[in-house]
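thread: overnight batch results

M.L. [08:02]
morning all. the overnight job finished for the chain we discussed friday. pasting input first so we're all looking at the same thing
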Amino acid sequence: MYMISIDAEKCEGCNECIDGCPVNILEMTDGKAVVIDGSESDCMGCETCVVVCPTAAPVIEEM
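M.L. [08:03]
and the structure it wrote out:
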């Protein structure tokens, strides 16, 4: 099981992580990527968001 979070201070709102997420658990809110409420644990740990993000804002943890 994996958990994802987005570091809002690092996020520049480029949308790359949102476009790359295969399970669509990210959305744009107030110009920043955020995890859709209640879907943090729906992350499958593929790290696509981490790879495409130019500022390393997404953080994935294995639980």
